[in-house]
Amino acid sequence: RQLFRSPSMPSTVIRLILKRVERDQDIPVKSKRQKSGASPPGGEEPVGGARLLRSKSFSHEEMENMLDNRHWELIGDFSKAYLLQTVEGKHQDLKYISPDTMVAVLTGQFSSLIDSCIIVDCRYPYEYEGGHIKGAVNLPLEQDAEEFLLKKPIMPFDVSKRVIVIFHCEFSSKRGPRMCRFIREKDRACNEYPNLHYPELYVLKGGYQEFFTQYQAHCEPQDYRPMHHKDFKEDLRRFCLKSR
């Protein structure tokens, strides 16, 4: 329970977590041990004719894993719910948004709630130069993303508003999701759990390919250069080596 004594986590969330832990372990509430008589073998104690199991203690690391592995509708630091509507995607541990939701963010429909939206384009530079979402920053390598986002974290000017990060690649199948997980892992490592610099991360479903098909007007230049373009085979080979 010491883990949950954090000012960043609401008391209602704490109670919900503890209730779910008890239910998942299927451990009844333990009554006071009878003063007379020793406990039978196996850690069970007879109380009023019932046999109660000894409750299990969880380490700090075990509790962190239990929290991270659940499909919470709360952002990474458990302080509030996700702002943007999410959709089902390829990776169940990540939060996906549709191109429609991306456009809603780009056109300022969430300006009263979002202080800064960072769109991370994880494609290779020749893909980015051939067409990208307006305002997106090109961070194809892990060291690029770590330096841009975590060396000097982007903080909101208005503390009542949010900073959100949206990752994507060509199809948001591999590079975008991988970068999203990498930033969350590095962010966890440089903060005291459950605090994060960027608790609200999303992945654009369908990536640039699907976004460009629906919303060319929000791309610059208004074009789409695939990763396997015939004129950039050498660039592809070079960046694939760097990514490894």
From TrEMBL:
Any Gene Ontology CC annotation: centrosome
EC number: 3.1.3.48
Region (Disordered) residue spans: 25-50
GO MF annotation terms: protein tyrosine phosphatase activity
Annotated Rhodanese domain residues: 113-220
Enzyme category, top tier: hydrolase
Keyword Cytoplasm tagged: yes
Keyword set includes Cytoplasm: yes
Pfam families reported for this sequence: M-inducer_phosp, Rhodanese
Main subcellular localisation: cytoplasm
BP-aspect Gene Ontology terms: cell division; G2/M transition of mitotic cell cycle; positive regulation of G2/M transition of mitotic cell cycle; positive regulation of G2/MI transition of meiotic cell cycle
Catalytic activities: O-phospho-L-tyrosyl-[protein] + H2O = L-tyrosyl-[protein] + phosphate
CDD domains: Cdc25 (cd01530)
UniProt-annotated location(s): Cytoplasm, Cytoskeleton, Microtubule organizing center, Centrosome; Cytoplasm, Cytoskeleton, Spindle pole
Record key words, sorted: Cell cycle, Cell division, Cytoplasm, Cytoskeleton, Hydrolase, Mitosis, Phosphoprotein, Protein phosphatase
Protein's job: Tyrosine protein phosphatase which functions as a dosage-dependent inducer of mitotic progression. Directly dephosphorylates CDK1 and stimulates its kinase activity. Required for G2/M phases of the cell cycle progression and abscission during cytokinesis in a ECT2-dependent manner. The three isoforms seem to have a different level of activity.
Family of this protein: Belongs to the MPI phosphatase family.
Assembly description: Interacts with MAPK14 and 14-3-3 proteins.
Protein's name according to its UniProt entry: M-phase inducer phosphatase
GN (gene name): Cdc25b
